[in-house]
Amino acid sequence: MDVVFLNPSFPAEMPDFVRGLSEVGARVWAVGDRPVAGLPPKVRASVTGYLQVPRLLDEVDVANRVIAWLGGRRPDRVEATWEPLVLTAARIRDAIGVPGMSRDTVLGFRDKQAMKERIAAAGLRVPHSHRVRTASEARAAADKLGYPLILKPIAGAGSADTFRVDDAAGLQDVLGRMGHVTEASCEEFIDGEEFTYDTVSVDGTPGFENVAQYLPRPLVARTERWISPIILTYRNLDHERLAPGVALGRKVLSALGMESGFTHMEWYKKSDGEVVFGEIGCRPGGARLVDQMNVGSDMDLFVEWARAVCHGRVHAPAEKRYCTAIVFKRAHGSGTVQRIEGLDRFLSRYGEHVIIDELLRPGQPTRDWKQTLLSDGFLLVRHPDAEVTLKLAKEAASTIDVYAG
Fold first, then answer.
1. What is 281-313 written as a DSSP string?
2. 3-state secondary structure at position 10
3. b/e per residue, 40-77, with b = 16+ CB within 10 A?
């Protein structure tokens, strides 16, 4: 089987998707903007051929170059698991007749307004919203929706350039910060807990499902440096607290015409129990969420994704063994990490539950916490019980401190 894979080097998880394809027997024809010498070793070891393109985010140019490179050959699949390239992959599929979701179908996972309209047409609850292209359109939409509201890019990923707006003055401030965004979704603010619903699907049917919770909600976590954000994954998706969101997610996949591959959906649970759709992408979640799911299920989802898209099946365990939590830390100060306090004590008490420790160490430069959720590193813990897992995560968040200067 021949698979064209777009952008094998970035983000950091992409080399493992290439590895997964190779491990299930696919010949990988990768496309990226780095020279061959700059590819990660894992990628170089897994690809059959490689095309370097000058403008990776130019959908039409990349599609044309890939089609010319193939020279009439028709691969079995064309895949992308990085959000900005899912439409490019679909364009190539449409042009050369490769199986997989069409560009119009993928648009439902990329264009946030079209997404909500298609899901609402299926009778599912979505935030009330309007597509806006100008400041005057945003003000008109705000008058219709009322405050608070959310303003975010139509084709954004994660919480980048996403703002909660509480009044007209706040809207004016946010509009001044979003001048580089050409299209936005102005939508109802949903007050509630925020969860994810993640899947690896085969022909629209989830072969693997996961639910995670953001603690606190991403919009809150982005406001203060002192916050140590936590993402908690659950074992039992049939629990009455989670089951309505899982049911919503399955209906969303059907409404949008999902076929085979990863999806990452966000949804809200209000205090009255109502569940509301947030948004969805036909790609994996970021911020090491795939690693969390792997650790919780003792599996390799990079391989299972490849098995789903190449062979139409997923080998998932009958039940998950663990809940997991990832705790992101932000240094006090900027520059170079000077010391870490509380880590040795935490590891001596709970080291058996710490599966990944990627905190920055003394001598390493700090990162811009506003630009990456990974911030200055993280710990990933697991335990069979959700309450214990969350307790471990909260203790790590409150007792471990990274100092820089």
1. ESS--TTTHHHHHHHHHTS-HHHHHHHHHHHS-
2. coil
3. bebbbebbeebbebeebeebeebbebbeeebeeeebeb
Amino acid at 14: M
- Residues 156, 222 within the same domain: no
Tokens representing 115 are: 């997404």
With residues binned 3-state (H G I as helix, E B as strand, rest as coil), the percentages for the chain, rounded to 5, are: 35, 25, 40
Contact 246, 239 (CB under 8 A): no
Q: Which residue in this structure is represented by tokens 């970035």?
A: 10
Tell which of 299, 320, 341 closes a domain: 320
Q: What is the pLDDT of residue 47?
A: 97
- What the block records as the tokens of 207 is 């072969």
Q: How many residues make up the chain in this entry?
A: 405
Token digits of residue 128: 């009330």
- Nearest Cα neighbor of 359 from 398, 393, 331 is 331
pLDDT value at residue 159:
64
* Contact (Cβ atoms closer than 8 angstroms) between residue 403 and residue 338: yes
Q: Please name the residues in contact with 60: beta carbons below 8 A apart, sequence gap of 6 or more.
A: 91
Beta partners for residue 29, in sequence order: 4, 49
Distance, in Å, from the CA atom of 318 to the CA atom of 324, rounded to the nearest integer, reads 18
Average pLDDT of the segment spanning 196-219: 96
Choose the final residue of a domain: 265, 293, 320. Answer: 320
Q: Could you tell me the residue range of the domain that residue 345 belongs to?
A: 322-405
Query: What is the C-alpha end-to-end distance of the chain, expressed in Å?
Result: 51
Kindly tell me if the per-residue pLDDT of 154 is higher than 90.
Answer: no
Q: Can you give the CATH number for the domain in which 280 is found? A: 3.30.470.20
Given the DSSP bridges, would you call strands 27-32 and 47-52 parallel, antiparallel or unpaired?
A: parallel
Judge if pTM exceeds 0.70: yes
R_g (Cα) of the chain, nearest Å: 21
259-314 tens-digit pLDDT: 999 999 999 999 999 999 999 999 999 999 999 999 999 999 999 999 999 999 99
- Cα 286-7-280 angle, rounded to 5 deg: 35
The continuous run of DSSP H or E covering 122 comes out as: none
Query: Which residues lie across from 401 on neighbouring strands?
Result: 341
